[in-house]
Amino acid sequence: MGQGPQQLQGLIRQLVLLPGSDATPRLCPSRNARLAELSIPRVLKRLTEKPDANDVLKYPYEADMKVTLGSRPPCTKAEGVQFWFDAAQKGLYLCADSQWVSVLTAKTKLDYVEEHQSLHTNSETLGIEVFNIPGVGLFAATANRKARSAIYKWTDGKFVFYQNIATHQAQSWRHFTIGKKIFLAVANFGPNERGQEFSVIYKWSPRKLKFTLYQRIATHSARDWEAFIVDGEHFLVVANHREGDNHNIDSVIYRWNPSSQLFEANQSIATSGAYDWEFFTVGPYSFLVVANTFNGTSTQVHSHLYIWLVGAFQLFQSFLTFGAADWEVFHIGERIFLAVANSHSYDVQMQAQNDSYVLSSVIYELNVTAQNFVKFQDIPTCSALDWEFFSVGEDHFLVVANSFDGNTFSVNSIIYRWQGYEGFVAVHKLPTFGCRDWEAFNTTAGSYLIYSSAKEPLSRVLKLRTG
Ligand SMILES: [Ca+2]
Ligand SMILES: [Ca+2]
Ligand SMILES: [Ca+2]
After folding, report:
1. N or C, which end of the chain has less CB nearby within 10 Å?
2. CA distances from 137 to 117, 131, 148, 202, 438 (A)
3. Ligand 2 centroid to residue 340 C-alpha, Å
4. Ligand 1 centroid from CA 208, angstroms
5. Ligand nearest to the CA of 327
6. Ligand 1 centroid vs 174 CA: distance in angstroms?
């Protein structure tokens, strides 16, 4: 690979490059050089996989194929098959009928992140919800520990303060819509000034251009709201964490009553220190999964997955979890995964041996034949509180909120990249402090991540560098 930096001719199998030994950084010494280095072996890997019947890879690709790396060579009726890999654009072209035809167009690749904005918040922030109001803009609602939580509006490429809302140890916000109505529900962990515990649904007023109080719902140390639709009906479910010292209480599903225009209790589900609900569908089936954190003596409890059958959610599968704080569902192609964030292994009886924050969080995959989720991958985490899945081009990523290792809140959160049969592989470390929640979002200017800190009044927006 050392010779001729502009043009290299050879057989395609000679192009399988070892990481770091690749000449493309010298071909295009730009700050994007690493991208070329990343993408060549991937492109070639696909090339060497079994060819699709209907694509150009049916050509015999060992014997007579020539690859040119570098600037565009002439495309003539040369003998054999001629490819050109455009290292700058990361595209692979085939010479056919005297024309270069794109074979594998370069896809957007992630070159990781850069600091974009330090968002100073009212107080420490737990959950962050990013949402769009059509015709108005992009917003972020932060669930702040102290007396009020804030809503920010994306203005000139940054989040700018927009509205304060009185909350009580707010844990998370959930945005949802019903028809044209736009709502935002907050999970209040603490009681109000009069000792009453309520979580509150706010509605966007198109006239005032603000969120205004819509409905209060009695909750118990609420951690999370999830909004979803089943059979055309709108629902909300709250994660009731505990009532006094009792963690084994009901969480409640509420159904939107179109006549009263209010949410009404519809089904109660027994939970143990419920922390998070996640709704998803698989084909015609609707599922709801709860993260159970603690039963009063142990964090080693089952978290349960429910399926909607004949008008109610019924137990479908149970997972042993360790202080489960978040479930994240995501799709990669046809495959469906569920990731749990395990935050703490603790058991009153085995306290000394067993109190740990450094433990595995688990990714499960739906096995359609067996009709259940099976363990796909263990990922070591440090008191994981959130998983966020996002995609860049054709690549898929998970970022984990690592919050605590038993000694310090200064721990790295990690981005993992989907690498097919290798599963998720750690590709990038991000120093975080008491990291609580990650959200991915897009604007016309690019893709971003935002994360909150439950330990300092500072959230950060990161811009994804893509090439
Ligand atoms: Ca949730
Ligand atoms: Ca999540
Ligand atoms: Ca999140």
Report:
1. N
2. 18, 9, 22, 18, 20
3. 9
4. 29
5. 2
6. 8
Tokens of 37: 């280095």
Q: What is the DSSP track for 61-130?
A: -SSSEEEEEESPPP----SSEEEEEETTTTEEEEEETTEEEEEEPPPP-EEEEEEEEEEE-SS-EEEEEE
Query: How far is the centre of ligand 3, averaged over its atoms, from the C-alpha of 386 (Å)?
Result: 6
- Protein residues within 5 Å, CB atom, of ion ligand 3: 386, 388, 437-438
Q: Which ligand is nearest to the CA of 361?
A: 2
CA of 325 to the centre of ligand 1 (A): 9
Distance 433 CA to ligand 1 centre (A): 22
Q: Is 345:355 a contact under the CB 8 Å cutoff?
A: yes
Query: How many residues does the structure list for the chain?
Result: 467
**pLDDT tens per residue across all 467 residues of the chain:** 333 333 334 444 333 333 333 333 333 233 333 333 323 333 333 333 443 434 333 333 443 556 766 677 888 766 567 887 776 666 777 887 788 777 765 567 787 899 999 999 989 999 999 999 999 999 999 999 999 999 999 999 999 999 999 999 999 999 999 999 999 999 999 999 999 999 999 999 999 999 999 999 999 999 999 999 999 999 999 999 999 999 999 999 999 999 999 999 999 999 999 999 999 999 999 999 999 999 999 999 999 999 999 999 999 999 999 999 999 999 999 999 999 999 999 988 876 566 799 999 999 999 999 999 999 999 999 999 999 999 998 899 999 999 999 999 999 999 999 999 899 999 999 999 999 999 999 999 999 999 999 999 999 999 998 87
**Ligand 1 centre from 374 Cα, in Å?**
21
Ligand nearest the Cα of residue 171 is 1
**Can you give the pTM of this predicted structure?**
0.78
Ordered by where they begin, the domains of the chain are: 7-104 (no CATH), 110-466 (2.130.10.10)
CA of 82 to the centre of ligand 3 (A): 47
